[in-house]
Amino acid sequence: MEPRSEEISPETQAARFKAILRARPGWRLVAETRQGRPLGQVRFDSDGQVSLALDPGYRGRGLAAPALRAALAWARRELKRTRAVARIKPEKVPSIRAFEGVGFRLLRRAAFRGQLCLEYEISLEQFPDGRTAARTEKSRG
User: Fold this and answer.
1) What is the total count of domains within the chain?
2) What is the pLDDT of residues 54-90, one digit of tens each?
3) Helix, strand, coil in percent for the chain, rounding step 5
4) More confident residue, 71 or 21
5) Which residues does 65 contact at the CB level (< 8 Å), separation at least 6?
6) Which helix (H) or strand (E) holds 107?
């Protein structure tokens, strides 16, 4: 399931999220405001793919890059990952900017699950092993 831009009900959102947790085991890091309110999540799938989803109320505020940086540093330290891959739909320009802004480099245009996507990669060697403020939850697969 990919993020959608249209408005969906909380019930539908909850059902989709539960399906994702069952279908794609991995790690979800919850990005929070300084006041402790969740603003989005960064997901690391077991295959090394990373994705980002921000609450619509927090988009366009420059919060994606700091959330990604913190999550990538966490993945390097806790998961011992040395690289990460992101697959982004070409029309998701804000996502492309956020991922490129933290250092992801375009590898190729490719079909993924029947849709055209841009495949990006980053080496995690550049991220410090410092602590992050992200809260994590291990999904059950």
Assistant:
1) 1
2) 988 888 998 899 999 999 999 988 888 889 999 999 9
3) 30, 35, 35
4) 71
5) 98, 101, 102
6) strand 105-112
What is the spatial distance between Cα 135 and Cα 48, in angstroms, rounded to a whole number? 19
Tell me how far apart the alpha carbons of residues 28 and 42 are, in angstroms, rounded to a whole number.
6
Half-sphere exposure of 70 (CA within 13 A, CB side): 20
Q: What is the CATH number of the domain that holds 23?
A: 3.40.630.30
Query: 47 vs 21, 26, 79, 108, CA distance in Å?
Result: 14, 8, 12, 18
Q: Residue 29's beta-bridge partner residues? A: 42, 136
Is residue 141 domain-resident? Answer: no
User: Domain of 89?
Assistant: 10-126
pTM for this structure?
A: 0.73
Q: How confident is the model at residue 119 (pLDDT cuts 50, 70, 90)?
A: very high
CA separation for the pair 141, 138 (Å, rounded): 9
